[in-house]
C-alpha cells in the first residue's frame, strides 16, 4: 500500500513538473527582442499588400488614445478643444473558408468607427462640459456610407446654425431641387454630392447627424483608398517600422511606483517586450517623419509594452503584433500611490471578428431631415 | 389481442382521468388550507416555486459577476487579463473565509418574526441586482485598464460577500417550510420541477436574442438582456418572503459541539478523506475543457441560435443521468461508479480533443461526458457519508461541518493551481484581448492544449481512487460497529427502539455468520466456474449441432402447404375472405364485422397450423441436448454465484477483522486499556482538587505489547506484530497527550475556578433552555439568561476538557456490554415489537389515505350538491344562502353519505384500521399511566445493578490487559 502511495506521489510530481515547465518563460536579449519586434512588424503589415501572405486585407483592431493630440471644434465656446479619448474600431473582413483561404470577392466589408470623447474641465479640474463626435465609414458591396454625429450650434432642431457643421468637415447648402429630400436634401458645397442631414436635441444638446452614401465604389477599393489610409494597420504600426535598435532599451525600465518592469520574455506563444525610449528619440522621430513629436506613439512615455503572438506552424511560425500599450506616469498620483496611466493601446485580432455586424458603440442614423 | 390492448388503453385513460381529477380537487380544495396530515397549503408551495424561479434568474445575472478566467463579461467583454482575474479570485477566496464566519454568525443569530431565512430572501436580492446593474452600466469605453480592474475587483468582492446569503437561504427555507420530512421532500421535488422552467427558458433565448446585441462579447447583451432577467428575478423571489412561512424552529437544547481543532484533526487522520481531497486538487486541470463549448460558438461558428438550442439540450443530460445513476450504482457499487465516471471522462475528453473543429460532433461527446459527469452528484454524497462514518468510528466524533473546514488545508494549493490555466491562456496570446479567439489558428491551438490538459487532469483525478479501498463490505461493517456503539449508549439512556435493536442484532448476527463461515478456496471456485463455463459452452455447441440435425427432418415450405390439413385451412381462409367481400358489397352492414372476425380467426388458425408444421421436430437427440444445455447453464450460474460469494465472503471477513472486531474487542487493546487507566486516575480526583493534585500520569503502569517482534518465514514482521507496534506508538502518544492535557487543566482550573466548581453548569443550562416564555419581553430576558448559562458552561468545558473526556471514556467502558447482556438475548421480543409497530403504522397510513379519499369524495359531492341546491333555490324563488345550503344538506344527508362511501373493501379496511389505531393508542396510554412506580426499573438502574455485579471483575482487570 505504501509503495502504491509513493508511486502515485512520484508520478504526480513528475506530471506537475512537466506542466510547470510547459508554462515556464524564456528571456530574450535586447538584440533578440528588437529583432522579434521588427520581424513581427514586417509580418503584421504584409496583410495590407495585395498578394501578401493572407491574399487579402482582413483584421480587426480596437484603439484607445488618451494622448489628447487631436482637437475638435466646440460650438458652445467657439474654440478648438483637445480630444480626451478617441476610441477607434476598424474591421476589415471577408469570407474565410475552413482551410483559411480568403475569398475577398465574397462578403467583403470595411468598417471604421471613430468615437471622440471630449471632456472640458475648469482650472480646478472639474468637468464643465462633455460630448461626443462619431465618424463611421461602412463599406459593403458597392456602396460606401459615411456618417458623422457632432454637436451643432443653435437653439433647437428648427433654429440651428448649419455653418457650424463646417468645423466637422461639412460645408453644406440646400439642394435647389425642390423635390430633393432625404439623402438628397443637401449638397456638399465643395463636391456638389448629395447627403442627408438630421438635427436632434439630446441630453448632450443640439446634435447634427450627417449621412452620405457613395455608390459605385467596392468595399475592397475603399479599403485601399486614401480615406482608409490613416486607419490601416500599416499606418497604425508605422512607427514600429521606423524604430532602430538604439531607439529602445530594456534596461532600467521602471513604472511610476519605481518597480522594474523591463524585459523581453517568451512564454509559449506569447512574446512580451517592455521597453522605454532612449534619450533624443523625439528629435529622431521628427527627423525621420517630418512630424511634430506629439504625433509619436512612444515619445514622452514612461514605458511601452508590446505583445507579439506566434501563430504557430500553420502560418510558418511567425509572430505578429498583437497588443501595444503605452504608459505614462499618472499626473494625479504621486509618492507611494503613484500609478501608471495607460495613454494608448491598440488590440489587434487577425482574421476576425469575421462579422457583418456593427462594432460596439455605433449609433445608426435613423432619420433624415425632411425639411 | 387487439381488443385486450384497447381495453387496457381505455382502463389506463380512465385511471389517468380519475387521478387528474383527484389531484385537481385536492389542489383546489387545499389551496389556502393544508390538507390533513400536511402543514403547507398549495398556494405556499407555488409561492416557494415561483420564488425559486426568481432566485434562479438573479443567480444567472450574478453568475456573470463571478471572478474567473472564463467569465465572458470580465474577460471577453471588458478585457481583464486572465492572470489579473485569478489574482482577484485569490484575494476573494481568502476574504471569503472571513465572510463565511461573519455570514454564519449572522444567520445563526437571526431570529425575527418572519423567521430566520425569509428576511434574507427579501433584503438581499435587490441590492445584489442593483450592484450588478450599476457595474454593467459603468462607462467602460472611457476607462483606463487600471480603473476597469478596480471596478471589477470592488464589485465582484462586494457581490460575492452577500450572494450566499441570498442563494443558500432559499434552500434553507425549503428545509423549514414543514415539520414533516415527507411533506418537505414533496415540496422540494415539486418546486424544483417548477423553478427549473426558468433556466430552460433563459438559457435557450438569451443566446438567440444576443445575436441582436452583438453576442456575449458585447456589453449591450448584458445591459439589455441579462440585467432585465435579474430585475424580474428580484420581484419573483419576493414570493418566497410574502408567500411562505417558516414552521420549524431549531432546537433550543444545547448540544455540545465538537471543537474545530479536534474535528479537523479527526478528519486529517482519515486516509479516505485524503484520497478524495487530493483528487479534487486536480479538478482545475480536468475542467480546462469546459470553456470550449461556448468559445466554439461565440468565436468559431458565431451562431448564437444554435448555441442557445444546444445549451438547452445539454441541460437534459443531467436529468437523464439522474434516471440512470441508481442502476449504475447498483451494478457497480460506489467505487466502481467512481472509476467508471473518471475513466470514461478521460475517453470522452480524448474524443473532444479529436473533434473540437467539428462543432456538432464535439457537442455529442460533450453531451455524453456531461451525462457521465452528473453521476458524481449521486455518488459523491454517498462517498462523503462513508468517509464521515469511518471518521466517526475511529474518532468517536460526528464531523458534518468539519469536513468543509478541514478542506481549507488545501486552500494554498487550490490558490496556487488556480494560476496555472490563466498562465496557459496568456501564453497563447489571450491577455486583454479575447478577440484573438476569432483567429482559428490561435483558437484551435489553445483548444488542443486545453483538451490535452483536461485528459491529464482527469487521469490525475482518477489516480487516488485506485488506492481507495473502502468497499461496500467494509462500510457495512463500519455501520454495524457504529450501531452497536450507539445502542450501548442508548440503552443506558433508555432510548432504544425495537427497530433499532432488531436492526443492530440482525447486522451483528449476519457479521458473525460471515465470520464463522468456512472460507472456500477462491482459486478452486474460479476453476470450477471456468470448468462449468466450458461445459456450458460445449453443451450449447452440442445443442446447436443437434438442432441443425433435427432441422434436416423439417419439411420444406412447399410440402407443408401441400398437406391436406393446411390446404383445408387455407381454403377456409379464402372462403372467409370471399364472405367479407360479399358482405361489403351487400346491404347489411352488421354482417361485415362478423365476417371480418371469422376471417381473422381463419387466418389465425392457418398461421398457427403452418407454424406448428414448420417447428423443428423434437428428436430424442435434440431433447437430450436441450436438457444437457439447460443443466449446464444452471450449473454454470451456480458456479458463478459460488465464486462471487466466495470473493464476497473473503471481503466480508477482511472487513470484519478490520472494523468490527477491533470495535468489539477494543477494551482489550493496550491503548484503550491505558486510556481507561488514565481516565480512572483523573476522575478519582474531585473536580475542586484538580488544581492542587499531584497525579503523575507517566508513572501509571503501561500495558504490555505482546507479539511485537513476531516475524514470518520470510523474516518480515507479521500483520499482528505491525498492529501491536502501532498500538505501542499510539499508547505512548496518548500518554504524552494526556500529560499535556492534565497540566493544561490544572492551569486553567487554577485561573478560571480558583474557588472551585460551585454548580452543575450543564444542568443549569438545560434547565434554562426548558423554560417556557409567553411574552416577547420574557423571551428576550430568557435569551439573555441562556446566553449567560451557555457562556458559563463553555468556560467549564474548556477548563475541565480532560476531565469530561475521561468521564466519557469510563461511561463508554461501562456501557460496553449492554448490547450483549441486555439487547441480544431479547431479539425475539424486539422483532415482535417492531412487527407490531410496523403493522400499526401501516394501518394508520391506510386509514389516513382512505380518510383523505373520503374527504375528497365528500367535497366533490358537496360541490355537486351545491349546484343542485342553487337550482332548487331558484325554482323555489328564494335567495341562495349558506343557511339554505346547510338546510338542504341536512335534508339530503343520506344522499351525501352515500356519495361519500368508499367501496365495500375500502370501508372494511377503514373500519379495521381505525379500530386497530384506537386500540393501540389506548394501550400506549395504559402503559404510560398504569405501571406502579416501585416496580419500574429503568435501563440506567439495570446498568447500575450490572456495574455492581461486575465490580470484582473490574478490580481484577486494573493494571493489566486481557
Helix content of chain B: over 70%
Number of helices of chain A: 6
State the separation between the terminal residues of chain B, measured CA to CA. Answer: 75 Å
pLDDT under 50 segments of chain B (min length 5)?
Answer: 250-254, 932-939, 949-962
How much of the sequence lies in strands of chain A comes to: 35-45%
Give a short summary of the structure.
With 371 residues, chain A is α+β, with helices and mostly antiparallel strands.
Which terms would index this structure?
heterodimer, A: 371 residues, alpha+beta, 16-stranded antiparallel β-sheet, two-stranded antiparallel ribbon, 20 strands, 16% helix, globular, B: 962 residues, mainly alpha, Growth Hormone, Chain: A, 5 domains, 39 helices, 76% helix, disordered C terminus
Describe the structure.
Helices cover 16% and strands 37% of the residues of chain A. Chain A is of the alpha+beta class and 371 residues long. Chain A folds into two domains: 26-54 and 232-338, no CATH class; 58-230 and 351-371, no CATH class. Chain A is globular, with a radius of gyration of 25 Å. Residues 356-371 of chain A have low confidence and may be disordered. Chain B is mainly alpha-helical and 962 residues long. Chain B has five domains: 25-250, MFS general substrate transporter like domains (Growth Hormone, Chain: A, Up-down Bundle), CATH 1.20.1250; 260-470, MFS general substrate transporter like domains (Growth Hormone, Chain: A, Up-down Bundle); 535-633, no CATH class; 668-713 and 725-817, no CATH class; 825-926 and 936-957, no CATH class. Helices cover 76% and strands 0% of the residues of chain B. Chain B has 39 helices and no strands. The longest helix of chain B has 52 residues, at 304-355. Chain B starts with a helix and ends in a 5-residue tail after the last helix. The model of chain B is unreliable at 250-254, 932-939 and 949-962 (pLDDT under 50). The interface between A and B is large, with 50 and 39 residues.
Amino acid at each position: 500500500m505504501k509503495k502504491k502511495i509513493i508511486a502515485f506521489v512520484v508520478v504526480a510530481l513528475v506530471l506537475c513538473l512537466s506542466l510547470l515547465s510547459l508554462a515556464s518563460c524564456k528571456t530574450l536579449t535586447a538584440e533578440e527582442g528588437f529583432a522579434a519586434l521588427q520581424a513581427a512588424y514586417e509580418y503584421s503589415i504584409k496583410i495590407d499588400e495585395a498578394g501578401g501572405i493572407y491574399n487579402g486585407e482582413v483584421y480587426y483592431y480596437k484603439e484607445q488614445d488618451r494622448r489628447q493630440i487631436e482637437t475638435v471644434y466646440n460650438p458652445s465656446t467657439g474654440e478648438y478643444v483637445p480630444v480626451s479619448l478617441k476610441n477607434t474600431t476598424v474591421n476589415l473582413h471577408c469570407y474565410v473558408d475552413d482551410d483559411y483561404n480568403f475569398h475577398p470577392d465574397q462578403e467583403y466589408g470595411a468598417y471604421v468607427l471613430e468615437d471622440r470623447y471630449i471632456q472640458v474641465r475648469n482650472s480646478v479640474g472639474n468637468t464643465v462640459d462633455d460630448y461626443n463626435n462619431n465618424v463611421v465609414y461602412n463599406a459593403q458591396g458597392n456602396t460606401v456610407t459615411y456618417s458623422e454625429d457632432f454637436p451643432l450650434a443653435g437653439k433647437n432642431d428648427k433654429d440651428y446654425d448649419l455653418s457650424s457643421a463646417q468645423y466637422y468637415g461639412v460645408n453644406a447648402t440646400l439642394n435647389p431641387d425642390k423635390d430633393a429630400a432625404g439623402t438628397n436634401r443637401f449638397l456638399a458645397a465643395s463636391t456638389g454630392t448629395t447627403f442627408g442631414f438630421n438635427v436632434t436635441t439630446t441630453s448632450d444638446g443640439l446634435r447634427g447627424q450627417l449621412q452620405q452614401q457613395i455608390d459605385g465604389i467596392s468595399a475592397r477599393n475603399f479599403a485601399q483608398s486614401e480615406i482608409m489610409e490613416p486607419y490601416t494597420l500599416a499606418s497604425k504600426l508605422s512607427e514600429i517600422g521606423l524604430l532602430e535598435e538604439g531607439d529602445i532599451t530594456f534596461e532600467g525600465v521602471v513604472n511610476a511606483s519605481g518597480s522594474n518592469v523591463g524585459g523581453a520574455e517568451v512564454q509559449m506563444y506569447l512574446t512580451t517586450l517592455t521597453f522605454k525610449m532612449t534619450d533624443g528619440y523625439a528629435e529622431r522621430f521628427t527627423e525621420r517623419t517630418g512630424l511634430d513629436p506629439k504625433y509619436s506613439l512612444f515619445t514622452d512615455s514612461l514605458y511601452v509594452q508590446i505583445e507579439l503572438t506566434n501563430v504557430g506552424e500553420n502560418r510558418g511560425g511567425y509572430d505578429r503584433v498583437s497588443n501595444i500599450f503605452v504608459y505614462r506616469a499618472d499626473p494625479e498620483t504621486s509618492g507611494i500611490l503613484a500609478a501608471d496611466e495607460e495613454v494608448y493601446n491598440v488590440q489587434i485580432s487577425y482574421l476576425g471578428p469575421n462579422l457583418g455586424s456593427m462594432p460596439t458603440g455605433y449609433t445608426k442614423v435613423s432619420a433624415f431631415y425632411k425639411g | 389481442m387487439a381488443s385486450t390492448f384497447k381495453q387496457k388503453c381505455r382502463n389506463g385513460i380512465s385511471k389517468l382521468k380519475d387521478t387528474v381529477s383527484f389531484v385537481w380537487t385536492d389542489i383546489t380544495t387545499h389551496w389556502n388550507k393544508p390538507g390533513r396530515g400536511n402543514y403547507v397549503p398549495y398556494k405556499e408551495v407555488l409561492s416557494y416555486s415561483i420564488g425559486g424561479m426568481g432566485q434562479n434568474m438573479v443567480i444567472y445575472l450574478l453568475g456573470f459577476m463571478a471572478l474567473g478566467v472564463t467569465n465572458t463579461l470580465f474577460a471577453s467583454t471588458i478585457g481583464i487579463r486572465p492572470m489579473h482575474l485569478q489574482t482577484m479570485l485569490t484575494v476573494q477566496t481568502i476574504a471569503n473565509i472571513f465572510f463565511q464566519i461573519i455570514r454564519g454568525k449572522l444567520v445563526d443569530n437571526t431570529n425575527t418574526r418572519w423567521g430566520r431565512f425569509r428576511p434574507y430572501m427579501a433584503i438581499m436580492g435587490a441590492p445584489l441586482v442593483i450592484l450588478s446593474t450599476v457595474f454593467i452600466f459603468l462607462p467602460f469605453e472611457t476607462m483606463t485598464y487600471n480603473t476597469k480592474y478596480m471596478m471589477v475587483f470592488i464589485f465582484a468582492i462586494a457581490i460575492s460577500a452577500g450572494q450566499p446569503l441570498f442563494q443558500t437561504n432559499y434552500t434553507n427555507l425549503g428545509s423549514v417550510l414543514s415539520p414533516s420530512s415527507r411533506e418537505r421532500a414533496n415540496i422540494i421535488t415539486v418546486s424544483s420541477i417548477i423553478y427549473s422552467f426558468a433556466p430552460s427558458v433563459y438559457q435557450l433565448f438569451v443566446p438567440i436574442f444576443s445575436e441582436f446585441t452583438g453576442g456575449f462579447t458585447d456589453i449591450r447583451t448584458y445591459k439589455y438582456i441579462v440585467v432585465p432577467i435579474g430585475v424580474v428575478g428580484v420581484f419573483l423571489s419576493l414570493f418566497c418572503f410574502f408567500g411562505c412561512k417558516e414552521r420549524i424552529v431549531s432546537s433550543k437544547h444545547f448540544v455540545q459541539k465538537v471543537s474545530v481543532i479536534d474535528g479537523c484533526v479527526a478528519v486529517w487522520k482519515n486516509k479516505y478523506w485524503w484520497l478524495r481531497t487530493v483528487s479534487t486538487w486536480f479538478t482545475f486541470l480536468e475542467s480546462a475543457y469546459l470553456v470550449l463549448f461556448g468559445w466554439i460558438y461565440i468565436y468559431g461558428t458565431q451562431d448564437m441560435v444554435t448555441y442557445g438550442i444546444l445549451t438547452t439540450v445539454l441541460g437534459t443530460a443531467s436529468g437523464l443521468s439522474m434516471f440512470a445513476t441508481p442502476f449504475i450504482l447498483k451494478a457497480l457499487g460506489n467505487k466502481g461508479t467512481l472509476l467508471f465516471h473518471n475513466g470514461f471522462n478521460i475517453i470522452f475528453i480524448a474524443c473532444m480533443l479529436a473533434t473540437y473543429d467539428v462543432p456538432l460532433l464535439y457537442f455529442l461527446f460533450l453531451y455524453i461526458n456531461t451525462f457521465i459527469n452528473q453521476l458524481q452528484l449521486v455518488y459523491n454524497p454517498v462517498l462523503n457519508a462513508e468517509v464521515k462514518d469511518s471518521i466517526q468510528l475511529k474518532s468517536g466524533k460526528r464531523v458534518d461541518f468539519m469536513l468543509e473546514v478541514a478542506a481549507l488545508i488545501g486552500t494554498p494549493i487550490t490558490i496556487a493551481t488556480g494560476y496555472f490555466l490563466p498562465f496557459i491562456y496568456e501564453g497563447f496570446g489571450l491577455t486583454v484581448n479575447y478577440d484573438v479567439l476569432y483567429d482559428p489558428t490561435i483558437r484551435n491551438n489553445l483548444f488542443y492544449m486545453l483538451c490535452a490538459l483536461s485528459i491529464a487532469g482527469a487521469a490525475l483525478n482518477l489516480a487516488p481512487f485506485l488506492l481507495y479501498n473502502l468497499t461496500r463490505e467494509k462500510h457495512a461493517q463500519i455501520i454495524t460497529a457504529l450501531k452497536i456503539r450507539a445502542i450501548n449508549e442508548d440503552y443506558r439512556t433508555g432510548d432504544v427502539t425495537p427497530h433499532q435493536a432488531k436492526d443492530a442484532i440482525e447486522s451483528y448476527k449476519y457479521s458473525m455468520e460471515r465470520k464463522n463461515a468456512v472460507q472456500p478456496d477462491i482459486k478452486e471456485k474460479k476453476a470450477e466456474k471456468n470448468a462449468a463455463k466450458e461445459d456450458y459452452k460445449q453443451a450449447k455447441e452440442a445443442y446447436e449441432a443437434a438442432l441443425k440435425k433435427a432441422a434436416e427432418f423439417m419439411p420444406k415450405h412447399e410440402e407443408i402447404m401441400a398437406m391436406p390439413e393446411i390446404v383445408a385451412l387455407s381454403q377456409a381462409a379464402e372462403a372467409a375472405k370471399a364472405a367479407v367481400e360479399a358482405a361489403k358489397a351487400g346491404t347489411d352492414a352488421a354482417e361485415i364485422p362478423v365476417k371480418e372476425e371469422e376471417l381473422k380467426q381463419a387466418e389465425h388458425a392457418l398461421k398457427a397450423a403452418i407454424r406448428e408444421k414448420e417447428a423443428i421436430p423434437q428428436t430424442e437427440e435434440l431433447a437430450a441436448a436441450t436438457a444437457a444445455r439447460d443443466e449446464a447453464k444452471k450449473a454454470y450460474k451456480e458456479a458463478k454465484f459460488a465464486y462471487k460469494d466466495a470473493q464476497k465472503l473473503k471481503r466480508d471477513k477482511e472487513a470484519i477483522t478490520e472494523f468490527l472486531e477491533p470495535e468489539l474487542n477494543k477494551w482489550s487493546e493496550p491503548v484503550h486499556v491505558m486510556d481507561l487507566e488514565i481516565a480512572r486516575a483523573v476522575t478519582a480526583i474531585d473536580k475542586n482538587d484538580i488544581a492542587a493534585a499531584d497525579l503523575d500520569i507517566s508513572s501509571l503502569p503501561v500495558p504490555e505489547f505482546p507479539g511485537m517482534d513476531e516475524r514470518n518465514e520470510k523474516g518480515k514482521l507479521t500483520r499482528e506484530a505491525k498492529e501491536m507496534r502501532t498500538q505501542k506508538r499510539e499508547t505512548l502518544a496518548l500518554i504524552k497527550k494526556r500529560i499535556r492535557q492534565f497540566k493544561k487543566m490544572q492551569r486553567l482550573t487554577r485561573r478560571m475556578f480558583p474557588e472551585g466548581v460551585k454548580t452543575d453548569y450543564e444542568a443549569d443550562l438545560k434547565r434554562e433552555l426548558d423554560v417556557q416564555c409567553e411574552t416577547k419581553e420574557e423571551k428576550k430576558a430568557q435569551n439573555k439568561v441562556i446566553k449567560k448559562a451557555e457562556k458559563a458552561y463553555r468556560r467549564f468545558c474548556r477548563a475541565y476538557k480532560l476531565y469530561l473526556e475521561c468521564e466519557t471514556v469510563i461511561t463508554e467502558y461501562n456501557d460496553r456490554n449492554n448490547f450483549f447482556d441486555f439487547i441480544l438475548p431479547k431479539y425475539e421480543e424486539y422483532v415482535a415489537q417492531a412487527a407490531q409497530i410496523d403493522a400499526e403504522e401501516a394501518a394508520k397510513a391506510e386509514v389516513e389515505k382512505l380518510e383523505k379519499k373520503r374527504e375528497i369524495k365528500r367535497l366533490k359531492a358537496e360541490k355537486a350538491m351545491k349546484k343542485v341546491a342553487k337550482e332548487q333555490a331558484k325554482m323555489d324563488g328564494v335567495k341562495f344562502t349558506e343557511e339554505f345550503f346547510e338546510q338542504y344538506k341536512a335534508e339530503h344527508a343520506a344522499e351525501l353519505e352515500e356519495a361519500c362511501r368508499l367501496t365495500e373493501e375500502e370501508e372494511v379496511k377503514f373500519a379495521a384500521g381505525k379500530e386497530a389505531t384506537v386500540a393501540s393508542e389506548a394501550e400506549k396510554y395504559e402503559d404510560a399511566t398504569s405501571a406502579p412506580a416501585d416496580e419500574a426499573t429503568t435501563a440506567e438502574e439495570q446498568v447500575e445493578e450490572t456495574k455492581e455485579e461486575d465490580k470484582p471483575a473490574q478490580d481484577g482487570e486494573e493494571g493489566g490487559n486481557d
